[in-house]
Amino acid sequence: MIEPIDLSKVRTKSIRERANKVRIDLFGQLIEPAGKFAEFVDALPGFLKAADFKELCERLNAARKASRPIILAMGDALVKVGLTPYIVRLIDEGFITALAMQGAGIIHDTEIALIGETSEDVQAAISDGSFGMAEETGSFLHTAIREGLGKGMGLGEAVAWKMERAALPHREHSLTWRAWKKSIPLTVHVAYGTDIIHMHPAADGAAIGKATEIDFRKFAALVCELEGGAIINAASAVILPEVFLKSLSVARNLGHKVANFTAVNLDMLQHYRPMENVVNRPTSTGGRGFALTGNLEILFPLLTLCLLDFKERMP
């Protein structure tokens, strides 16, 4: 019989001793498109992905105008390549009405709120076992989850609530805190053992599991209302496509009409699960699926600026 490892003697260190690859001063900066990006979309050829891009912009703007849900299910890469300002603007303009993250997403976003930096050098840190051992990250998140759960909160809401109470110094750059201030639902979907905070002595699998279970049920409730809206999966190859497919099954099982909606996958590569679980299977009896491939630090700002111009042209 193998015994579970004892994490109580695991050594953590201050996050401020760690070199990071991502800083808020490297985040993207929005410009005002002033009609130029809508003209750019108009000028694209009417073939293949150019035609898809045009139709996607039209569909997302139509969903916004009809006040239908638009869910962004995002991998942590969106934070790590500086896209937070674009996501915040899309929330402000009504193009995103709910956010879903993986466990890594809430970790990187919390570190941004804590110190304005995130993303350590894994190669350098794994050699001596210091990878993932930032004390402040684990301490803040485990406290937030435990305290929030005591109030019946899911994981995303618990972390946002704690950021507000703790007045973290860089919280204005945090998607979690911004969603909280805008009353935008934020759910966090954890696969236990995949995130750095699961290695910390304070890790409580029961609390994390319960908090993410609440968020799964919240996400499923959002999917129940997806008719006429949109789901955008960006940079999540496995977890969020699986969560979406199960939520869609729950919604349809409970009798909700979720057939006519827009589903899109944005990523550097098109993987099996996003293609099948987001783009193809859910829209096989209605709706429309899209797959756009490219570096997100270019593709996502391009989509954002085009959508802002579409809103100006068709308010």
Q: What shape does the CA trace take?
A: globular
Question: How many runs of DSSP E, i.e. beta strands?
Answer: 8
Helical content (DSSP H or I, runs of 4+):
40-55%
* Strand content range: 5-15%
CATH H-level homologous superfamily name: Deoxyhypusine synthase
Q: Poorly predicted ranges (pLDDT <50, ≥5 residues)?
A: none
Main pleated sheet: 6 strands, parallel
Overview of this structure, please?
This protein is α/β, with parallel strands linked by helices. It has a single domain, classed as Deoxyhypusine synthase (Deoxyhypusine Synthase, 3-Layer(aba) Sandwich), CATH 3.40.910.10. It has 13 helices and 8 strands. It has a 6-stranded parallel sheet with strand order 5-3-2-6-7-8, sandwiched between helices. Helix 11 (239-253) links the parallel strand 6 (230-234) and strand 7. Helix 2 packs across helix 13, helix 7 (135-150) crosses helix 10 (205-224) and helix 11 runs parallel beside helix 12 (272-280).
A few lines on this structure:
By secondary structure, the chain is of the alpha/beta class.
